[in-house]
What we know:
Oligomer: homotetramer
CATH class of the largest domain in chain A: Alpha Beta
Strand order of the largest sheet of chain A: 2-8-7-6-5-3-4
CATH architecture of the largest domain in chain A: 3-Layer(aba) Sandwich
CATH superfamily of the largest domain in chain A: Type I PLP-dependent aspartate aminotransferase-like (Major domain)
Radius of gyration of chain A: 21 Å
Largest interface: A-B, 52 and 53 residues
Largest sheet of chain A: 7 strands, mixed
Number of helices of chain A: 14
Low-confidence stretches of chain A: none
Amino acid sequence: MKKYSFKNDYAEGCHPNILAALSQTNLVQQNGYGEDEYSAEAKRLIQKKINNVDASVYFVSGGTQANLLVISSVLRPYESVIAAETGHIFTNETGAIEATGHKIHSVPTADGKLTPAHIQSVLDNHANKPHQLKQKLVYISNSTEIGTIYSRKELQELSDYCKDHQLYLFMDGARLGHALTSEANDMSLEDVSALTDIFYLGGTKNGALLGEAIAINNPKLQYDFDYNIKQKGALLAKGRILGIQFLELMKDDLYFDLARHANTQAMRIKAAFRENGITFLSETYTNQIFPILTNSQIEKLQRDFDFYIWQKIDETHSAIRLITSWSTNSDRVNELIHQIKSL
Amino acid sequence: MKKYSFKNDYAEGCHPNILAALSQTNLVQQNGYGEDEYSAEAKRLIQKKINNVDASVYFVSGGTQANLLVISSVLRPYESVIAAETGHIFTNETGAIEATGHKIHSVPTADGKLTPAHIQSVLDNHANKPHQLKQKLVYISNSTEIGTIYSRKELQELSDYCKDHQLYLFMDGARLGHALTSEANDMSLEDVSALTDIFYLGGTKNGALLGEAIAINNPKLQYDFDYNIKQKGALLAKGRILGIQFLELMKDDLYFDLARHANTQAMRIKAAFRENGITFLSETYTNQIFPILTNSQIEKLQRDFDFYIWQKIDETHSAIRLITSWSTNSDRVNELIHQIKSL
Amino acid sequence: MKKYSFKNDYAEGCHPNILAALSQTNLVQQNGYGEDEYSAEAKRLIQKKINNVDASVYFVSGGTQANLLVISSVLRPYESVIAAETGHIFTNETGAIEATGHKIHSVPTADGKLTPAHIQSVLDNHANKPHQLKQKLVYISNSTEIGTIYSRKELQELSDYCKDHQLYLFMDGARLGHALTSEANDMSLEDVSALTDIFYLGGTKNGALLGEAIAINNPKLQYDFDYNIKQKGALLAKGRILGIQFLELMKDDLYFDLARHANTQAMRIKAAFRENGITFLSETYTNQIFPILTNSQIEKLQRDFDFYIWQKIDETHSAIRLITSWSTNSDRVNELIHQIKSL
Amino acid sequence: MKKYSFKNDYAEGCHPNILAALSQTNLVQQNGYGEDEYSAEAKRLIQKKINNVDASVYFVSGGTQANLLVISSVLRPYESVIAAETGHIFTNETGAIEATGHKIHSVPTADGKLTPAHIQSVLDNHANKPHQLKQKLVYISNSTEIGTIYSRKELQELSDYCKDHQLYLFMDGARLGHALTSEANDMSLEDVSALTDIFYLGGTKNGALLGEAIAINNPKLQYDFDYNIKQKGALLAKGRILGIQFLELMKDDLYFDLARHANTQAMRIKAAFRENGITFLSETYTNQIFPILTNSQIEKLQRDFDFYIWQKIDETHSAIRLITSWSTNSDRVNELIHQIKSL
């Protein structure tokens, strides 16, 4: 029997409702390139859920694509981005942002989250204009790449700071569902929309085959984005497959139910480790956990489960990363918990 | 009742076999980013079908994406592309190639097809080096944007010419299935592979939800392409959906059956026009036809059918474009033919 | 004795006044990067001469650099340029504009000059948005690459058309001096400034060692240009050498005297050809002429003079190009005229 | 009387020999775009001095231009650069490298110098290919941006490491003259050439009006560089002004005499501070020094001299930066020393 994987949240296909909707609509003729009725309806639904009927909503295939599209369309050639050193755009996107001509100024952080003080330090160090770039966009992820989340107050402070300093605030929401359904969360989707210039709702890591929904809240940035999508090769001829998926995910809050399921499973595993006296690399309340284990404990868990060894702590200990998803099987989690108890 | 559309070949979803395969595999855990087993198997199948087990095969989402990835990864900054004036990269991709830094030299052609003489004329006009670019890649489409196809001899001549002049030959195969199953075709898929440096097999316009399969035949170009895919935002986390689709399309030659169906329907419609004494803008044998009609004939057909008016001929006549697809309904074609007869 | 060259207008160094000024100021300490007093004074002088004290003026090294800086700073990624097929940016700048990501739509013209009808034809052919680019900037050269000039009326019409269509009008003035001192000219420098969004005054081809003065007239485009100059490697540490040169050229209208000298010599040569019954490829009134000669006539002139054979007319005739400059020696022109008479 | 400036090494024009040579050659007709006889001779002279007759030598206008040309021409789109956090390309070039599409991985260093261990740490942190870039070029400056220099052994180690790891080694030599004539130097120009793939000899900061001489030592990189120069707007029509200047600088080792003069003046000032018990931010032996002074000492020196306050140390102390140059006046240095003694 194959090992069960906790390596990521995109190991399976998609939620069955999506497959059903693809089947039901399959032979209905539609306009191409995002001009289909499903996409139009999904956009309206999202505008309603984020409480901003004036937002421009676009569907694209994945997170790196969303990030490079947003950033390259918003900035002028000499404008730059500020991000945490753990930010996905800085570490794991093969220089996608720089490939569009824009530098990312990275800031070390304790928990993957930016504060106004972090941003101010970058501005302070780049006063020699025009020999230094003009900082213009702040990139944050929620939940972050290491599983932490922003509180409403933290996001409000960032938003205020950015407005005061003519900076755009852009939230990478590849795992926004997980952030907003975390037990530690105090923020609504409407809050996110009100406090950012642009953000996106990730589908790929929350039950879709592919797809992220970009919402442009700032009216000044709401024009001509479709040209960028086409130019960067991101406009699907059958845009319907993005619209259909987001229609299903947004209907009856399936999107949040799926994320909550992932979080719940992660928290169950976390509790099991904790009960066994095991500590964590960071305190997370979403679908990623980072327990610190001995080498022999790791070997034991590896017999039946797949996961990444995240960071070596010392000669005898490493932190591992376990990720749960919309489709994580409760029975297999039970098995894992059983094994954790006997470590 | 809604009009039936002959506007394009991507108006519906996908072939039912694909939906079935997506369902069957849905909960099987797989590695992400194209490292799944379905993609691996589909690549092997394609290598076999193109008779080149050493080809590098990559799956991406769409044609513009395939074109910009191939061209930007193959060329150095000062190298340029030669294409027909009707070439998709020159006309309808929002400057996607130029956005990666590369100029396209366009050549007017009678039928959308390039010849060595066309290419030579570009080289002759760019002798003032280094004040003029270094031409390095020849872009052709088969079938072309106006429905014509290359013969084996024509492709052989282009291939020889390109080799002699250190030019890469790249075939946009968004509609390669339609070209190779045309009644006028004398070329095999193996020929295409043997005579080009790079080409792709289009899925989006031939029954897939999305996806093009790029085959790199020239060993000198077979390295590091995966970095480019990731950097340009084209690497799907759930690469399985591309692999699964091409597995289905390539199995038992479904790919060619679907294209043949589209061609057959177009040829039936073409015959009906011809029998009625109607002439065509160009002589095509694939899934696109361009009959020249009077304005009143156009109005009549528009009552029940959707299509593009392609080109105004004079005050009383225009050419229209009718495109058939893998899913074009024979009954609706019968209705159209019936109406054509009574024009 | 070496042949005398009529190949271009940059074969010698610079006007002696410039060398004298460089010597006189050599040890005066100045701020770097264009913040020197000479540049400031030269900018004020230019603002006065173009009758626009609010224009932003920047000095850069050469024409290709000026063109790519202006275009890449003004356009958004999906915006494109319209130019004549003979436009320098389209033919002889190694794809410099495309290298910044922007397509140039070229238009065939009889005389190297664009009209509103030319531009309208490009707009008409690019209505399929967003699959086609957004045309945003019109590039013209005055004098053109083939020696012709715009009349005031022609420029006014272009300017009106561009304003009506939300297009920027940019004039490449590498040889603006020659245009404005042509016997056929009816336009002033103030007119040029009033009718364009951006233009530049070429120094390199009119007596400077290097240097073009860019004037940004449109207030909406007058910001942050200095970042682009630095980012593209075009900001000289010793910006003084550009300021000092333009101070000398603009003082007492030396700039126009030099251009007039070049034009006068060209017109003398032109008259000599004409008297001898020789015809021309195009009718020019600036410092470039294109007489059509027999092969044996060309061979005779080649004994003592260097020039380019521009275009083969038939087996026995070609057009040659003769260019005069600020430093063309009257005595050598006399010799050339003498030889023309005896052809 | 105006304050005397120690702010930079490009506050004056150029060495008188250069002005004389410009005057003497002024009316000699030459080919444009670097095809002149002076440039050809200067290239031969440099090939001889660096002991590599096979090196390709190119002249460009400035340091940022040289850096972006070299890096963008050498790297493929997904390849990246490693540099010290103080590297000029990382801090003060307005994102010029990123604007060509390439990320710079920065490394904190004590003294502005990279070691193999620094580079290894970057490689170690970027093992997740192809989600992370392919590191391909190491950028170093000699002398560095903070005045330090590489020893022969250090450069040898870097060179060996880079060869072992398929990395190119590129030296920014904007102040290479100062490095090689430092009292602490043990390396020859021939060594630099033998141990780097590409480097350049800076003219702008060592007595030229403008100009850097790029030497490409690695034969694999010696092709088509001229296309890049033209495409990036860096090819001067009157390339002669670069050739003439380097001919003068390289003749009789004027280049090194000028750098030595700058170093000597800086060392005189350094000795004066040291005698007065003043310490330094870093230990330098070239033309930049960073003494740490009290605020009142700084105010006193500011009465007659211009310089930058480099870094605040505490409430009452800051480090200042003093830069000397080829033209630094000994008498004014004497005055400064006099004032230092009385601080």
